[in-house]
Write a structure and sequence with these properties.
With 96 residues, the protein is an alpha+beta fold. The protein is built from 3 helices and 3 strands; from the N terminus they run H-H-E-E-E-H.
């Protein structure tokens, strides 16, 4: 009888959906503190978009997660490795 009840409860969709959890609720999201600027960045490269009046079709977005900095550049057809090289050159030159 015990085995039957255990199997029934494990297979019952309503029982599994309504069963209370014994785990603690997760706390607030803990954001790590970076030791230097641009230690953690978010980069998005969006496109190709419809061509604008200036002929630019791409959006290159760089965001420093520990700073209130968001750099948005609209560009023509430039390969992504060239953009990355440009960004890291700007970033390292800015630190010195």
């Amino acid at each position: 009888m015990r085995k039957f009840i255990t199997e029934y409860i494990e297979d019952c969709l309503d029982c599994n959906r309504c069963k209370p959890s014994n785990q603690k609720l997760a706390g607030l999201l803990q954001i790590s503190v970076q030791s230097q600027r641009f230690e953690v960045i978010s980069i998005d490269f969006l496109g190709p978009l419809p061509e604008g009046k200036s002929g630019k079709r791409w959006i290159f977005l760089i965001e420093g997660l520990n700073l209130s900095l968001c750099l948005i550049l609209r560009r023509e057809n430039v390969p992504l490795p060239n953009w990355m090289k440009c960004f890291f050159t700007m970033q390292y030159l800015g630190e010195s």
